[in-house]
Amino acid sequence: MDNQDYTTSILVDQSPQEVYEAINYVRAWWSEEIEGPTDELNKEWFYHYKDIHLCKMRVVSLKPGELVVWEVIENKFNFIDDEKEWVGNRIVFEISKEGPKTRLTFTQQGLRDSYECYQVCNDGWNNYIGNSLYKFITTGKGEPNPKEGEGFNKELADRWQLH
Questions:
Q1: CA torsion angle for 111, 113, 119, 124 (degrees, to 10)?
Q2: Cα(42)–Cα(163) distance, rounded to whole angstroms?
Q3: Helical segments of 32-162, H only
Q4: Predicted confidence (pLDDT) per residue in 38-53, tens digit
Q5: What proportions of the chain, in percent to the nearest 5, are helix, strand and coil?
Q6: pLDDT for the residue 4
Q7: How far apart are CA 29 and CA 82, in angstroms?
Q8: Average pLDDT, whole number, for the chain?
Q9: Sheet bearing 5-12, strands edge to edge
Q10: Count of CB atoms within 10 A of residue 82's CB?
Q11: Which of 52, 61, 93, 110 could covalently link to 68 via disulfide, CB atoms 3.0 to 4.6 Å apart?
Q12: Candidates 3.40.50.720, 3.30.470.20, 3.30.530.20, 3.40.50.80; correct CATH number of 5-159?
């Protein structure tokens, strides 16, 4: 049977509110190449990694110290045939207390193991959540994709009508 979701979790010493704030500072752990607000309800933002992955997200839920949810509005990978993979998926960050620690459970609802991008996406999320976001939460320094330079951002944002 086709697995419908990808899930991973991390356990940290920081408070649920600190974890929530770290998640919403997406440029510090996922990519410095993000255009638009990532921490405002019903707002859209744009992520890209070179021309390999382009994605437009909408923030659909924000509950301080508890939950962050993004919906994938548009998506394109340059290494697969089906450009609709991810479209309509929800990226869910659930935050809960577990004794004296805080658990962050990350789920990409709809990331099927039959997707052409599944292994690359699985490896990517393992890195971004288990490594970069974990480090950002616990040390204040994540490992996001670096900024590529000016000009390319505007061109992509214009192409994706992100204004």
A1: 20
A2: 14
A3: 118-127, 134-139, 152-159
A4: 999 999 999 988 888 8
A5: 25, 35, 40
A6: 81
A7: 27
A8: 89
A9: 5-12, 101-109, 90-98, 67-77, 53-63, 44-49, 34-35
A10: 11
A11: 93
A12: 3.30.530.20
DSSP string, 32-69: S-EES-SSSTT-EEEEEETTTEEEEEEEEEEETTTEEE
Digit-coded pLDDT (tens) for 152-163: 455 555 555 543
pLDDT band at 123 (very low <50, low <70, confident <90, very high): very high
Please report which confidence band the pLDDT of residue 10 belongs to, taking 50, 70 and 90 as the band edges: very high
Write down the domain spans for the chain: 5-159
Instruction: Compute the distance between CA of residue 10 and CA of residue 16 in angstroms, rounded to an integer.
Output: 12
Handedness of CA 160, 92, 120, 137 (dihedral sign): positive
Tokens of 69: 């949810």
